[in-house]
Amino acid sequence: MLQYSLTAALLYMLLDQVQFFNLDEVASKVSALSLTGRNGSSHHPSLGIKEHNMAALKTFTGGLLLRHIQQLVCNAHAITSLESKTMQEDDVVVTTEQVRIATAIYPSASLMNHACNPNIISNFPFGSTLVVRAVRNIAAGEEVLNCYGPHYQRMSFSERRQTLQEQYFFTCNCTACAAGEDAEQRLQALKCEYCDGPLNMPDDSGKAACLDCGT
């Protein structure tokens, strides 16, 4: 909370430095916005910003900055770009890397719940336009699930739970997390020659049993 408050204070100081609060047009618009609702009804006078009350205007603006910063923490979506590194001689792609270039709030996308094994993927093929695509068949009535960052193929079970709890304040119970450490073991295991299932780690005798068929 402290870092968000400091960020809001810094932005407030920058606005004050460029004399944002001295603009009569800005002051009048914010005053009208705070005093009148969408249906034309007036808010309680103690909650509004009276005209020409510069101190109240600054307090109101600082509060808005802090509110939007707090909303970004749980609702923002990273805008990324896929950058490729090529060899100069034959122009062959050597590596590709997903780079974050901005952060934005997409109201519809922010309604999707998280899963460490999501059924959709988000990308930005048209600049800042967010496009959501299914990565597997989604049955009628099945929930559309996004990944908030911790993916079961990139992070361990304990790391995912800790990250989600610290940033989004919930304990994930998706299918990948319900499988717990077993899902990680399956991803890293060798394939059983009899049933194509995952082989367990070898025991002291050097034998690796299959997690599915037991051979």
From TrEMBL:
Protein keywords: Cytoplasm, Methyltransferase, Nucleus, S-adenosyl-L-methionine, Signal, Transferase
GO annotation terms (biological process): methylation
Pfam (any one): SET
UniProt-recorded Gene Ontology molecular function terms: histone deacetylase binding; N-methyltransferase activity; protein methyltransferase activity; S-adenosylmethionine-dependent methyltransferase activity
Predominant localisation class: cytoplasm
Signal peptide positions (record): 1-20
Keyword Ubl conjugation: no
Protein name listed in UniProt: Putative histone tail methylase
